[in-house]
Design brief:
single chain, globular, 22 strands
């Protein structure tokens, strides 16, 4: 068969285009519309650019490459949602995983941030998310991330289209309206390249896969559904993952309610079994996570519960219909207990969605009701409306931010728009629900005129003035088109015009939401590149950030620069050590050093932990003065930052035979940190005394090397394995200044030994005199258990699908039937002789 004939059969039939072909074409069209600046103008989807994004106030960035009109002075950062989740979690995780794939290192322990911190146990890193792994396989660069995100977005839009045409039997117009709203709402636009948005990107794939499985139980559909759920649950950004699961499964369950009761049990089993298998397959990730968060990580739930809830505000309420960036140039916004969220459902989409409640049929009513409930709950939480606020009494939901609830609202809204567009007819266009909503928008905006001083009393920017006009134009345009739709002659055309308007409105809202093209995250600014080369030249050296111009949080992992960092997720002992011996409120943040900053570090605390380089903001005179006072010298600088070198930095491992019994550093009692150590570990103290090591018997040590009990050398250093060789003249304790963790194990001369917590947060081992080989390994039981469960689940899934396939094949051969799926279903066809109108198309599709 000729190649052209193969392609023709794949996309065409004798009577027209395949539905797959149309959905692929529409998905491609939306991808080109949304990412024209990326595909044609070379813009990037990477969220982080060191100089342009973080120092824009000092060094104004160039205009972002965009085919959409851009207001003067707008930064790419202005359009981001939860910027932190992309810049300090999602993006560095890709570079870290790329390094692990290249080097064969384990991703289960990260020695570069916070002197060692659990790898995938830090949930928000998304180290095993689909985008992370795909980007890592392609090298981990911003170019790779852009390419992978484009591919995932295209697949998600395709699944939206197939869900509504193939599974829910709506027209292509309704499906395209849903896809447009899915792509162009405020949550999608501002969180596409961030960790918070990854579950949202996978949601349509899971919805489509589950509906396919519910409509036809086959091994292939079951495999597709399990794989989609694995992709979703591997994103691990817990708040939006939870929102996504609630929406998707409430919709799939609701659509099943229209079926006879005898089929409910089977549907319920599928809903329980599919995600359960997916979670079992991911046990290698989740079991270590549960182990960490329930045993030795600090109280993460308490950390999130401390976030204030913004509650209701007029400004947030208006964001339902207007984009966040409309308010950015308006600096006169009165202060209040609210944050500018990025929900934005739009004017045209909201008015279309009101028609979903008209002319309902039983097959759609439950799904529409489920979407309405999800939308109501999320909006009730965002705006602090009783009784939805009762969810705050539930421990998990109490710390979900407003931007996270917007994920649920946006996904539910997609369903309402699809059914709303489909339901518009000459009998119900601009009915009571739509008319009421038009009135609400008018009143709301007029009230805000007065609230924000937009009635001429306060000067506003040209951009804001322009948007005020555009708001009224969009509202009047939509109402007018709906009036025309009441005429049977113009109904179909009016619906198509609404569809075009929906896309145009969304494209206007996406103004400025794409960062300018840059490779600075792949090739960091010159000072950071210099630091990286120096650390590579001096193995074991660590660095410390002070301020906002250094290495962004978690990027030490991405760049492989060992760092003494303060992170949200860390073992409790290290957290307390940092607060007590390093400092408070001066770590890297988008706001820089806070007024409450306390510099607590000393030569002893920095030297003990091997900090050789300190990167500080050039304008931070207080920190620079303190570092100079410690005898640190400036070794590199630029206009933004200055790098100091510590001449006293200690090796990562050393030997002591002077042990003090208190919880702190030897410097607290005037002892030298390189000749003494402190611990309260009872077992370790017993072992040291049994070997004859001095405990609480300080002696005056001379400066001679001969007074040291011996020497130690790091001969191999890997993420989950550290190998030391030591030669001791007398019994002593070997100290490794990686953070102590109860899941590390140690072997001395291939025999199990005990690791104690030393110098407040680090590792110590009692060792007898002589030559020894010491091996530290991180391979906890939770990791082994998780991997075993995942392996058993995978084998069970493969065997189950194989047995199922053989049973179906035998049943088909016995009955003489052609195997299912060999013929193209009639519902997958679109006439090639012309586009069908929505009103003519819908009855014919439902009759099948």
């Amino acid at each position: 068969m000729k190649p052209l004939e193969i392609v023709k059969r794949a996309f065409l039939t004798e009577t027209g285009f395949r539905g797959t072909t149309v959905c692929l074409a529409l998905a491609l069209l939306l991808t080109l519309l949304l990412f024209g600046n990326v595909i044609f103008l070379g813009a990037s989807l990477a969220p982080l650019d060191y100089d342009f994004m973080l120092l824009g106030s000092v060094n104004p960035p160039p205009p972002a490459s965009s085919v959409i009109p851009e207001r003067d002075g707008r930064r790419a950062l202005d359009g981001q949602g939860d910027f932190w989740s992309g810049s300090s979690q999602f993006q560095p995780a890709q570079r870290f995983m790329a390094f692990c794939l290249r080097s064969g290192e384990s991703p289960y322990w990260d020695p570069y941030s916070a002197t060692g911190i659990p790898g995938p146990e830090v949930l928000a890193d998304l180290k095993f998310a689909p985008v992370t792994l795909a980007t890592a396989l392609l090298g981990g660069s911003s170019t790779a991330l852009t390419f992978v995100l484009l591919g995932l977005y295209f697949g998600a839009v395709y699944c939206v289209l197939r869900t509504f045409t193939d599974c829910l039997r709506l027209s292509f117009g309704a499906a395209f309206a849903a896809a447009a709203v899915y792509s162009l709402n405020g949550f999608a636009l501002t969180n596409l390249n961030l960790a918070v948005g990854q579950p949202y990107l996978v949601a349509p794939i899971v919805l489509y896969a589950m509906l396919r499985l519910l409509r036809r139980q086959s091994p292939l559909n079951a495999l597709f559904a399990v794989a989609a759920n694995v992709a979703l649950f591997s994103t691990t950004f817990t708040p939006t993952l939870t929102m996504t699961v609630l929406v998707v499964y409430s919709l799939t369950l609701a659509f099943e309610l229209a079926k006879p009761r005898r089929e409910w049990v089977r549907s319920l089993v599928i809903h329980i079994a599919t995600p359960s298998v997916a979670v079992l397959l991911l046990a290698f990730l989740y079991v270590p996570v549960v182990d960490a968060f329930t045993s030795y990580m600090r109280d993460i739930a308490g950390f999130y519960r401390s976030r204030p809830s913004p509650g209701i505000s007029l400004l947030n309420l208006l964001s339902l219909f207007t984009p966040k960036h409309f308010w950015e140039p308006y600096v006169a916004t009165p202060p209040g207990p609210f944050e500018k969220i990025t929900l934005q459902l739009g004017i045209i989409g909201s008015l279309i969605a009101t028609h979903a409640f008209r002319s309902l049929k039983r097959t759609a009513a439950f799904g529409i009701a489920a979407a309405t409930v999800c939308l109501s709950i999320s909006l009730g939480q965002i705006y602090g409306i009783f009784p939805f606020t009762l969810l705050d009494s539930v421990s998990f939901f109490s710390f979900i931010r407003n931007d996270y609830w917007a994920c649920m609202a946006s996904l539910a809204f997609v369903v309402l728009v699809a059914y709303g567009w489909e339901a518009i007819s000459s009998k119900n266009a601009l009915g009571k629900p739509a008319a009421v909503l038009v009135g609400v928008m008018v009143v709301l905006f007029l009230v805000l005129y007065n609230y924000l001083g937009l009635n001429g009393q306060t000067a506003i920017s040209t951009w804001t003035e322009r948007y005020l006009v555009i708001f009224w134009l969009i509202l009047v345009f939509t109402a007018t088109i709906l009036v025309f739709a009441r005429s049977p002659r113009f109904t179909v055309r009016a619906k198509h015009v609404l569809l075009i308007g929906l896309i145009v409105e969304g494209l206007y809202y996406m103004n400025g939401l794409r960062p300018g093209r840059s490779d600075r995250d792949v090739k960091p600014t010159e000072s950071i590149a210099w630091l990286k080369s120096e650390v590579d030249r001096r193995p074991g050296s660590r660095m410390l950030n002070i301020g906002r111009t250094g290495v962004f949080p978690n990027w030490p992992s991405g760049l492989q620069i060992p760092s003494l960092d303060f992170l949200s997720y860390m073992p409790m002992s290290y957290y307390v050590f940092y607060q007590r011996y390093i400092g408070v409120d001066f770590v890297f943040a988008t706001l820089g050093v806070t007024p409450n900053a306390k510099y607590l570090f000393s030569d002893a605390s920095l030297s003990l932990t091997g900090v050789r380089y300190v990167m500080v903001d050039a304008a931070n005179k207080e920190a620079i003065s303190r570092l100079s006072g410690l005898g640190f010298h400036s070794v590199h600088s630029d206009i933004y930052r200055e790098i100091f070198e510590n001449p006293h930095a200690m090796a990562r491992s050393f030997v002591v035979d002077d042990v003090r019994t208190f919880d702190g550093l030897p410097s607290d009692v005037g002892a030298s940190v390189d000749r003494s150590a402190a611990t309260t570990d009872v077992v370790l103290l017993q072992e040291l005394r049994a070997l004859g090591v001095r405990v609480d018997q300080p002696v005056q040590a001379s400066a001679g090397q001969a007074d040291l009990p011996g020497t130690v050398q790091v001969t191999a250093y890997h993420h989950d394995r550290v190998l030391l060789k030591c030669k001791l003249e007398r019994p002593a304790m070997v100290v490794l200044t990686d953070s102590w963790n109860p899941r590390w194990r140690v072997m001395v001369d291939r025999k199990p030994a005990y690791i104690g917590k030393v110098d407040f947060a680090f590792r110590g081992v009692a060792v007898a005199a002589g030559e020894h080989e010491i091996e530290f390994r991180y391979h906890p039981a939770s990791r082994l258990v998780g991997q075993a469960i995942s392996g058993i689940a995978l084998v069970g899934l493969i065997l189950g699908l194989w047995v199922w396939s053989k049973a179906l094949r035998r049943r088909g051969q016995a009955s003489g039937l052609v195997p299912a799926g060999a013929a193209v279903p009639a519902t997958d066809l679109v006439p090639a002789t012309g586009a069908r109108s929505a009103t003519r198309d819908l009855p014919s599709r439902r009759s099948k």
